[in-house]
């Protein structure tokens, strides 16, 4: 396992929330909250080159990291490694080492392979830091952090009384896995998960969670709802009958939202499939914190980049 | 209709020249001329994030805006929304709102749908400004402005004695429509339009213009020629017989240019189809102001970005 | 021939190493070494706009130039002219002139056509500088420079006693041609070239070189090995039988490397085809200077950009 915290207690990389000590998670959240509240550090990474190295494309996440890095004064570079013409058949590790040899010190890496980002981090030079922007179905630590920051802003720092439900395709979701790790670490009172059997993981991912296929029941009295995006490929894979069926069973409507607490918040990692997992009325309603999540994403990524890049050397 | 000037008299957005008060148009042109003459404002937008959000690709216009924003000290981001993988099926408005939530304050938006840019601007937060980089066949205000700036540089600020001819595919051209609005607003003495019937609009676009299909007649004694690009798809649509025919009837040659005033200037929004709407000799000749237009484009975009982004908040 | 050094003795462009006076080559190498050793010039190109204009894609080289330009304080723009939608059928020269008219002063140009970059440079305005980032099979001057810088770091500045071998597809390689020009200019003691007959040029490219098809013999007592990438298209063109055959005859293994001097260094311009022209053991071994080459690439490009852009105006 690649080390996130080195022997001197400095954060080397941000690879997952599963093995991140809770005091680190808390420190990142507090720093992110400061940025969200307007703290600035325009010279924190002055002259430092940061590369977004995406082996799987994601315009949105890349943009959020770029904004975060710019606000810290970093130089930004982008390497879209998802096209073969970019890598010309070289190994991922060679691509990584090459850019590192150019003098890039910070890497924001996304990869479709589970563990692939940590594998690259394991080969990084002493002065190089890696932030995982999503690997396979495993980890998406900055998404987990921004979700926790959003929860804190809405419900306070004490999660012990909270009831949170995660809804949808948890099986294929690194967002859900990172949220689960973070919710457990922060002592969330009750974690419910809800979705069709075909979209729920059958390993120990859901350990300690209340699992149900009944969406109405899952919503009863919850403080927060984390809706997941339904990838359309789940239909072609036969895991979901139809968008209509899915919406009927697991689509969040205003009526259903009424089962949650009156001040429950609705979250979604985006991009939303309006009319599938969520209706327009809920997505744009007073209880939606979806855009706040996006704003918090930049703050969290500033905290993450600052943590790992002021730690090295 | 989305407001460009707010109640306090500040320019909120730049969406079209049609509804822009003439004193604003003039103010933008004067500021652009200052930039063209070497004025600098390297800190005007320091720390402000500007995103080029193109739902229809255009490398050239994007580059021009990027240069303009960089010279004002802004942070630049690019979101190429013309590929479905970038938007993953989300609505244009969700894409816009997401990037806005990240803290981007300035948007440079291009869209193939008429009115689509103004529609996004209508949903913008109070602190967010939108510059229309072209929507459908409707508006391309910065192109209209740069054409006016070029005309002023060549012919002075008083347009009342000028005879200007616009030649080619006016029907599908937002450039032509923006030029027409601007020429009228600035009191151009005589506006002629010329092209095959199939490429001329049949609505009130050409109100007040002298319309002709005879290119030679249209050129007689004009001060300026605005040549339009002939999109090759007009052939497949059957609107134009062949490139050869088009060139014979509406291609600008040195000989034809002789019918215009001796000091007439030739303009083209680019990219040029050499040998179709314009010959090499004219494109590269002494009367060509094509590259000056390109230079003016950066100055105009600096003025536009400065106007809308120093106006907000 | 486009002039690289103007009448006042300033370096206008960097187009090739073939016609670059050796004192200039040496000056660039010495400045690059200073950058490689930590010299900084963060304001050298402050406010100067540099555009990477690639008519043939290359993410790696583009990234290296971008990093170099950023470290000198330049504004960076990218124009990927390898897709037709970007250029919309306009000529390369019009594309170049357009971006120049926007105020870009530095161009980093790659093109698949031999001489195409010099042709654009010949049309550049007085205040515009062009750096050739690779044209056809002809020139790749910054690669040649970075290879020389690497050789100097490993073997000292006096090349008169050195034996260097270049291995592989020299016929299609601008890297090899630039290396050959530089090695000759710097007085390399013995230049050997080795590859199958089908991949060796039959013109005067190899003048003064010891040519052999026997890889083992070619390695005897050499100080440095420059391995070339085998493009997979050479198979489909029938120039190489199979990857296996090529590896058997010209693949660098640890055993073969033993024929070179004990302190011989191994170089490769990347990206490497591991298992084809080079084995993992050699690529990652103690004698590999491949990543140092990449690092030196940024230093060399800083020196090149600084030289041509502080020379103009």
Description:
3 copies of one chain form a homotrimer. Chain A starts with 21 loop residues before the first helix and ends with a helix. The model of chain A has no long low-confidence stretch (mean pLDDT 95). Chain A folds into 2 domains: 22-140 and 295-309, Rossmann fold (3-Layer(aba) Sandwich), CATH 3.40.50; 143-293, Aspartate/ornithine carbamoyltransferase (Rossmann fold), CATH 3.40.50. Chain A is α/β, with parallel strands linked by helices. Chain A has 13 helices and 9 strands. Chain A has a 5-stranded parallel beta sheet with strand order 7-6-5-8-9. Chain A has a 4-stranded parallel beta sheet with strand order 2-1-3-4, with helices on both faces. Chain A is globular and about 55 Å long. In chain A, α1 crosses α6, α1 (22-36) crosses α13 and α6 packs across α7 (174-185). In chain A, β1, α2 (59-71) and β2 (75-80) form a beta-alpha-beta unit. Chains in contact: A-B, A-C, B-C. Chains A and B meet through α2 and α13 of A and β2, α3 and α4 of B.
Q: Which two chains share the most extensive interface? A: A-B, 22 and 23 residues
Q: Termini of chain A, distance in Å? A: 22 Å
Instruction: Please estimate the helix content of chain A.
Output: 25-40%
Number of separate strands of chain A: 9
Q: What are the defining features of this structure?
A:
five-stranded parallel β-sheet; 13 helices; 9 strands; Rossmann fold; four-stranded parallel β-sheet; homotrimer; 313 residues; alpha/beta; 2 domains; globular
């Amino acid at each position: 396992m690649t080390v996130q915290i080195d022997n001197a207690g400095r954060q080397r990389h941000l690879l997952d929330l599963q093995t991140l000590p809770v005091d680190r998670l808390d420190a990142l959240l507090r720093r992110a909250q400061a940025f969200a509240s307007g703290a600035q550090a325009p010279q924190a990474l002055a002259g430092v080159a940061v590369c977004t190295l995406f082996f799987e494309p994601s315009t949105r996440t890349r943009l959020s990291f770029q904004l975060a890095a710019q606000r810290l004064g970093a130089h930004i570079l982008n390497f879209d490694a998802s096209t073969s013409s970019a890598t010309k058949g070289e190994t991922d590790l060679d691509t990584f080492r090459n850019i590192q040899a150019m003098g890039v010190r910070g890497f924001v890496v996304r990869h479709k392979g589970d563990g692939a980002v940590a594998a690259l981090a394991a080969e990084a030079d002493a002065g190089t830091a890696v932030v995982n922007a999503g690997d396979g179905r495993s980890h998406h630590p900055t998404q987990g952090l921004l979700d926790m920051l959003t929860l804190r802003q809405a419900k306070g720092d004490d999660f012990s009384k909270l009831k949170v439900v995660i809804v949808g395709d948890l099986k294929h979701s690194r967002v859900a896995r990172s949220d689960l790790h973070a919710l457990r670490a922060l002592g969330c009172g009750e974690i419910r998960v809800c979705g069709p059997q075909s979209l729920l993981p059958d390993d120990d991912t859901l350990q300690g969670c209340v699992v149900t296929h009944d969406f109405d029941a899952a919503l009863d009295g919850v403080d927060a709802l984390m809706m997941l995006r339904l990838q359309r490929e789940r239909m072609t894979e036969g895991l979901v009958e139809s968008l209509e069926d899915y919406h009927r069973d697991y689509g969040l409507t205003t009526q259903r939202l009424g089962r949650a607490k009156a001040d429950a918040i609705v979250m979604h990692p985006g991009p939303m499939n309006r009319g599938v997992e969520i209706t327009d009325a809920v997505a744009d309603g007073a209880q939606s914190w979806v855009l706040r999540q996006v704003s918090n994403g930049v703050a969290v990524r500033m905290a993450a980049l600052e943590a790992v890049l002021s730690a090295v050397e």
